[in-house]
What does this fold into?
Amino acid sequence: MSSPNRSRFRVAIIGRPNVGKSSLFNFLTRSRRAVVKNEPGVTRDIIAGQAEWWGKSFEVLDTGGLTRHDDRFSALIYEQVMSVLKYVDLLVVMMDARSGLLPEDRDVVRIAKESGKPFFIVLNKVDRENDAELLKSEFYEFGLDVLHASVERRDHTDEVVEKIIATIPDGAIVEEESVRLAVVGKPNAGKSSIVNAILGEKRVLVSDIAGTTVDAIEESFVYDGCKITLVDTAGLRRQGKRLAGRDGVEILSAYKSFEAIDRADLVLLVMDSVLGPTEQDAHIVQYAYEKSKALIVVANKFDLLKAEQPEPKKWFRDRLDYEFHFAPDVPVVFTSAVSGRQDALLDEVVRMAKKLDFKISTRELNDFFYDVIRQAPAPVYRTTNVKFYYLTQTEQKPPSFIAFANHPEGVTPAYRKFLINRIQKQWALEGVPVRVFVMKSS
It folds into this structure.
């Protein structure tokens, strides 16, 4: 199988904490993807977004703040940022005009120079045009042109865009449509480790501190001919625990996680296989199913489970069937992020992606449909049997079907479930949230 590969122009925004990197990211991507809060350290992960400006397409990476602090997170952020610099084409070094030139700014410039990548400096938070030259003067010591802007007020941001566009070579690749894959789960289930193992780079912070991932982090790649956009999300705790916290960032992060599920085609639910599935995991599965999302359970840390259970897969599957009694056919991939490559998991992702795009000819579908409706008593509306005329597939994803009948209101949820189960078994669509709508025939 082929490994993930990628090819596009990438721009990374780097700088010390709280200089406005996330604000610039949101401006360039025309989104609110990055959490913006007036406190340092809110962005802990590499956040990727697509930007389209003046006929040019490029990817923007928002990074965690680089600082001299010797705390654990600062060291992790530094290591993470350094690991991705080799994958980018241009660096935007951001500094804060209100704070003036600080030693950490010099560190950031040194890192940019040592990376060997082209870069330029943006002096942010210049709120008065008359003060621009005075504020910029001390930053000229680097021997570079310095752009000034107020990203929050959108002042001179067009000049930043123009500088980026001037660096992009002709023929930059525009991203094609892909399968959106959301990675979700409880804190410390190993989501970020799985993401890093898939991508082969430290894009996401990995630590034993709950809540390390704040934003939803996107990365696009191609595997076995399938274009995939992977989205790593914040760990989802129970709502009561989220609301009990004093920091609104965690509540916003949880919202972004559910938003990622809403936008996904396929959901990877990562669990600690030693702990097994929990009620919170069941809530995530139920939410995904309500949103008609295909789902794969990733039983992580399987190496530890094998050391504890004589029949580890049976033990986990029995627990899964008990907690997810409403979803008996969820596919499971047993893995350990520490083992490196995740080919088995990606193979299952590709297999499920093909199911999501599965098409059935109308003739084949109705030959099957007529056989099925003869095998069970017809539903009854008042005193009249419901009569089905034909079934057709829509253009929606996941596979959806419309059955035309004389009395749609007589088709019960149980009979609809019967039709869905037969469709899933006939075309091996287990695990895919097939939908059947019933409309009145004219």
Observations:
- Residues 316 and 351 are 22 Å apart (CA to CA).
- DSSP finds 14 helices and 17 strands in the chain.
- The chain has a mean pLDDT of 83.
- The longest helix spans residues 248-263.
